[in-house]
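hey
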């Protein structure tokens, strides 16, 4: 199977430094480029971070639904802010989401909100052979560390082989992930710690695909495409049905 992870920056394609205001511009002209790239990669599962689900930027169109329809995939998505949070009440922000798309039917979906952080969503998607957890963690390091602790507990009881992927915002360095990986028994597919941000001059490893021992890595690649401020991650893997995920360390 192939997993494609991509923070698409709401499909804006804005790459200049300190240009966050430009992410409020229209996205309809650029999003087809992302669709063509996704089709070219031929993934079985797609984890999308920073998806616009229908603001004025997209002329009220849902990017997750558009891409799923173009690829003939199943999908799920949700705004990445909690139901009672400020992000649900502010225009544009209330359409900012994360999404999972899959070639095969989605058996079960759950949306979990961490107790801390402005961005607080973890999407859990169960497929026939694996369960994927997609996250976009907070910008503050203290909130991120608490979220990683909650994520540890969230995946602990998952009976299927687990993939944990997303934009972890490890702005202080990859060391932020060490305790989480050790406690969960997961491994990062990016064994060389190649940077993923910013796409025009990568120097930080912010995006991760992690897998448990019941999953066998086949190939990992970071395509050098500049369709977003992040680079995409591609992970080919096989699932060993005879192995079960290792229990997490309760001492985390």
């Amino acid at each position: 199977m192939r997993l494609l992870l991509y923070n698409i920056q709401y499909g804006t394609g804005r790459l200049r430094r300190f240009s966050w205001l430009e992410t409020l511009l229209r996205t309809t002209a650029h999003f087809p480029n992302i669709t063509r790239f996704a089709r070219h990669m031929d993934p079985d599962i797609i984890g999308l971070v920073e998806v616009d689900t229908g603001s004025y930027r997209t002329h009220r169109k849902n990017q997750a639904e558009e891409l799923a329809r173009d690829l003939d995939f199943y999908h799920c998505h949700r705004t990445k802010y909690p139901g009672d949070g400020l992000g649900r009440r502010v225009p544009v922000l209330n359409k900012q989401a994360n999404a999972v798309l899959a070639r095969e039917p989605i058996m079960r979906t759950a949306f979990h909100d961490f107790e801390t952080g402005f961005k607080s969503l973890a999407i859990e998607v169960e497929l026939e052979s694996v369960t994927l957890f997609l996250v976009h963690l907070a910008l503050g390091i203290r909130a991120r560390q608490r979220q990683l602790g909650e994520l540890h507990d969230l995946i602990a009881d998952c009976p299927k082989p687990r993939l944990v992927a997303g934009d972890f915002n490890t702005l202080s360095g990859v060391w932020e992930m060490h305790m989480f990986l050790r406690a969960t028994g997961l491994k990062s597919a990016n064994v060389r710690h190649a940077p993923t941000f910013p796409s025009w001059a990568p120097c930080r490893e912010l995006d991760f695909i992690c897998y448990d021992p019941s999953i066998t890595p086949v190939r990992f690649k970071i395509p050098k495409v500049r369709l977003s401020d992040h680079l995409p991650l591609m992970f080919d893997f096989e699932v060993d049905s005879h192995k079960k995920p290792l229990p997490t360390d309760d001492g985390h």
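The two ends are 31 Å apart (CA to CA). The chain has a mean pLDDT of 91.
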